[in-house]
Amino acid sequence: MEMSRVTLLLFLTSSLGLALAENVDSNIVCDxxxxxxxxxCLVVDTSIIGTWDSVRQFCRNLGGELVNMHDANILHxxxxxxxxxxxxxxxxxxxxxYDILDEGKWVWSYNNTHVRxxxxxxxxxxxxxxxxxxxxxxxxxxxxxxxxxxxxxxCDQPNAVICASTKKMAEAKPxxxxxxxTPRRECPSPFIMIGNVCLLVDALKENPWSEQQMICxxxxxxxxxxxxxNDLGDLYDxxxxxxxxxxxxxxGSDLRMEDDWVWEDNSKVPMGTPFWGQETRGMQEPxxxxxxxxxxxxxxxxxxxxxxxxxRMKGVVCQYDI
Length: 322
Known about the structure:
alpha+beta; seven-stranded mixed beta sheet; globular
């Protein structure tokens, strides 16, 4: 890439970042044109459209790399940022996952570590969870037509770009080197540790939402409150490993005020991607309006959040706080 071209791209990227600066609080120091998005130094840019290889090189010229999502919560931060800035809500975006080297084995381009598959990162197409493109689609993007969930795509297709600062990634401790000296917590029976949360999955007894709430309370807990996308992924893995095939009530509702989704303790339910799924008309959940006011994990939608009528019969996920 010619130096004049690089200079122009840097100018455009810096200009776009400055135009959006008023909308985001900066909590960490990022070298321009990177900006703090969810405590990560990122560039989200619709002025740069190209193949996966070309936009990856663009990121490298900035001192970065295509964004990785070892922490699934970064997808929620990016989704929220895009929705808060409508100028960005028009393109799909390349990210740093690919299976070019070994078909079906998705890795992050920054360090060739494993990409988490299934929920909560990957979207759904025609009843099948991505990736679905086989040998023809070997690069990952955030799909604007499916709420910015991860899809595989042909690497030569034109998409916009999300870069992450490699300087900040290098400053962070590698995941495998992190030490947690906190004593391992134990969950009281019948709860078990799933990921980082004490949970009980009851897929035997189906009841309405309010009855399941009473059952969880009687066990000394409450209906599950999942606010971390990684915990949702751990719960998904557990449900699949244990062949759970029914919908499960969780502790969220908008019974008190329509469209104000809260947990039982009145804290806010995270909205949008990568928590909520899609209903049959293509709208992102919750989409049931006045008639569907309780939150469940939908077995037919890979256990993403859905709203439903509170009187429907479902299993439940209970939680015990320790």
